[in-house]
Each structure stands twice: as structure tokens, then as C-alpha cells.
Amino acid sequence: MDKVILRPRREESILRFHPWVFSGAIARIVGTPAEGDLVAVYSSDDRYLATGHYQIGSIAVRILSFDEDPLAPDFWEKMVRRAFQVRVACGLHGSETTNCYRLVHGEGDGLPGLIIDYYDGVCVLQAHSVGMFKAKGAICEALQAVYGDSLRAVYDKSSGTAPFKAGLDLVDGYLYRAPGFTADEQVVLENGNRFCVNWNEGQKTGFFLDQRENRAHVGRLAKGRTVLNLFCYTGGFSIYALQAGAVHVDSVDSSRKAMDMVDRNVALNGFTPDRHTSYCADAIEFLRDVPEGKYDLMIVDPPAFAKHRGALKNALRAYQRLNAAAISKVAPGGFVFTFSCSQVVDKEAFALAVFSAAAQCGRSVRILDRLNQPADHAVNIYHPEGEYLKGLLLYVE
Ligand code: SAH
Predict the structure, then answer these.
(1) Ligand 1 site-directed mutation target among 229, 230, 231, 290, most atoms within 8 Å of CB
(2) Contacts for 260-263: CB closer than 8 Å, 24+ residues apart
(3) Is CATH 3.40.50.1580 what the domain over 208-396 is classified as, yes or no?
(4) DSSP for 153-189, written as a single string
(5) Cα separation of 164 and 203, whole Å?
């Protein structure tokens, strides 16, 4: 195995189990590792530190093991099983009302660069590194070992996430399909609500599993309310609100495909169109035309406005503008569930943007709750960067 040797004193973060080696920390490389190869990381005084996937870019190594032993043959199965056991322990696997969850959340599950979402027997995998992309065959075998006969399919959806490199066959497709399983979508249950998930045509792995708990929270407050779900994707929050007894729900997303799926999901759960209206529109323009006081519960869950640090300032301004528009329009006594999934926007910065929005509107606003990502999107305590979803529940008078 090729060796990556660090500069003096640059081993400290690895001794604290941080799973990344930045290129600036490297003194020299012994050998000529290809992207995605396993490399062993050593301190400047030649102490073994860790083993990980080599990557060209600012994150040069993503650590898979801090162990003396090089990766054992059963490594993938062991890691997938550990992740699975956490989902069992949290009551996500084996639940009668929920049969979809995130099985592997990258660094949070000790597998940097790998996402696997589980949809009732179908695992959808996204590799964010060349190393994980190259390991997908072994990962698929590990999934077969862990789930056994209940595994219906393993779908690789890395074309949009793996760094593009010549020679990588970045075509999405099935790594495994049980005999007779031919569909690209299926209906899953989330807290008893039914959702059709299409991993082939949908965004990300097909569904935003990270909002499960926050959707349930909306459900607890939606009874008797008139709801606006902005950036609704396939209508997750809308279905919970309808289930909870909302008077009417309007759902807005700019994606036609997403809105078609909202309509299917509304019907799938037995709701009639008189309680729900779909709008394929730009959410910000839609909000501009909303009459003041029409809605007394709003959900604002935009895509990440900042994908990197350089975009932070503009993103914060965009969050402020969007939230000011929502806060100014919501009825007195209304709730606003507002979110940011930009990793580079931390909790404090987001709260400050929402604070500025409230101040701009001059309304009385209380924070009733701080919202997070759920247990299956766990954060490795040594890798706080894994925390990305944050939200506030506002009460506006
Ligand atoms: N709340 C959703 C997830 C939202 S993801 C859920 O619970 O599943 C963000 C969504 O915003 C995507 O569906 C994307 O299509 C949509 N989107 C992006 N830009 C938009 C815009 N300007 N107006 C409306 N929708 C937009």
C-alpha cells in the first residue's frame, strides 16, 4: 500500500479521529497511488496513523480505519452491519409504520464519501468519492449479506455525485436485482404515510429522508390550519399536514416531475383534490403574490443556497429575503417551519439570517423549537462538518 507522510504536527486532527487529510498537510507520498486507491497515512516521524481512500483535491485522504490492521476482507460487511444495527436500535428498521431510512450517512457511519438510503428492501447508493465508487461491488455484497433475502435491489446513483474522472463508468444502474424485481420505484411508508419513491428519476436518492421528524412535527401542529408548503419536492410535509387534519394545503415546487409525484402521493394517501392544490412555480415568485394572512402554517425548505464557503454571504442574504417574505405573509398566530440544508451555513448564522428577516418585518416572532437532522443522519462527534440540516419553528403574531 502506498504511503502518505504528513508534515510535522499535522497528525493531530487524525489522532482526534477526524476522518479527512487535507492536501496541505501532506509532506510527501511514497508510491504513485491512483485516485480511489487505499493509502496508509503516517506522521512525519513515521508512525502509522490510519488507512483511507486517496483522492485528488483539497481532501486528499478520506479515512476508513484508524486501526493498525490494513482493511480486512470483512471490512465492508462489518461497517454496513454496524450502521444497520444503529437503525435497528433507533427503531427505524423493523418498524410497522416506517420502512425507509438512511442506512449509511458518510462520515457519520465511519464511511466517508458513501451514502446509502434504504427504501423497503431497495438500497440506493451514492458515492461521493472515487474510492467509494470503486468499492461499490464490495459494498453491494455487504448489503446482500446484511439484508439477506429481503434485499430487492441495489441501485447505484453516483453519476451526479462521484467526482468525474476519465475511465470511471459513471452510468447509474442496478448492482443487484432480486429475480422478478423490475420496477424503478415503489411505495414506502413513513410514519404511516405512503410515498412513491422513484430512485431513477427523482432528486438525490429519490426522497428526502432527512425531514422525517420535522414532517411529524408539522403533523402535530397542522390540524385546522391552512398550509403552504414551499419547495415541497414530492409533498412530504403536505401529506403529513393533510393527515393531521389541515383545512387545505397548497404545495409549490419548480420541478414538474416533483409536482406530478405530489399529486400521486396525495391520491395514494386517499386525500381528495378539494383539500390540496399543486403549483409548479418558482417559490419566491409564488410567495410574492400570496395575500397577507392567507396561510397560518408555512414550510420553507429550499435547496442549499450555499454549496461552498465562497457562496456564504450571498446565501445568508437569500435566506434573509426568503424568510422575510414568509414571515411578512403568515397570518397572526401562524407557524413558520424554516430550514437550511447548506452545510456551510451553521445554526448560528442561519438563526441570525432569520432574526434579520423578522426584524425587517417588524413582527413579533418567537422561536418555539430548533429543528435538526434525524438519528439516521447521525453526526460523527469527531466530524462536526456532518451536521447540515437546521431549522427553526417560528410563531408569528
Ligand atoms: N421539503 C422537501 C425537500 C425539498 S428539496 C421534502 O420534504 O421532500 C428542495 C426542492 O426545492 C426541490 O424539490 C427543488 O425542485 C425545489 N426548488 C429549487 N429551486 C426552487 C425554486 N426557485 N422554486 C421552487 N422550488 C424550487
Answers:
(1) 231
(2) 261/196, 261/198, 261/202, 261/234, 261/235, 262/232, 262/234, 262/235, 262/238
(3) no
(4) EEEE--TTTSPP-TT-----EEEEE-TT---SEEEEE
(5) 19
Q: Domain-by-domain residue ranges, the chain?
A: 2-65, 75-187, 208-396
- Tell me how far apart the alpha carbons of residues 278 and 83 are, in angstroms, rounded to a whole number: 37
Q: Which CATH architecture has domain 75-187?
A: 2-Layer Sandwich (3.30)
| Nine-digit cell string for 181 | 424485481
pLDDT at 165 over 70: no
Assign residue 229 a region (left: φ > 0; alpha: ψ between -120 and 50; beta: otherwise): beta
Q: Which atom of ligand 1 approaches the CA of 252 most closely?
A: 24
Q: φ, ψ for residue 149 (rounded to 5)?
A: -70, -15
What would the pLDDT profile of 340-394 be if each residue is shown by its tens digit?
999 999 999 999 999 999 999 999 999 999 999 999 999 999 999 999 999 999 9
Tell me the fold of 2-65.
2.30.130
Q: Give residue-wise pLDDT tens across range 204-250.
A: 999 999 999 999 999 999 999 999 999 999 999 999 999 999 999 99
Q: How many CB atoms lie within 10 A of CB 291?
A: 7
pTM, whole model, 2 decimals?
Answer: 0.97
According to DSSP, the residues that pair with 196 across neighbouring strands are 187
The catalytic site residues sit at 341
User: Ligand 1 centre and the CA of 282: distance in Å?
Assistant: 9
Lay out the sheet containing 390-396: strands in order across: 276-280, 248-253, 226-230, 297-300, 334-340, 390-396, 365-371
What's 273's DSSP letter? G
User: How many other CB atoms are found less than 10 A from the CB of residue 145?
Assistant: 15
Beta-bridged to residue 340, according to DSSP, are: 390
Q: Judge if the beta carbon of residue 335 lies within 6 A of ligand 1.
A: no
Name the residue of 211, 237, 253, 377 whose CB sits within 8 Å of the most ligand 1 atoms, as the mutation to test its pocket: 253
Using CA positions, which residue lies closest to atom 18 of ligand 1?
303
Q: How far, CA to CA in Å, does 6 sit from each of 15, 60, 66?
A: 12, 11, 15
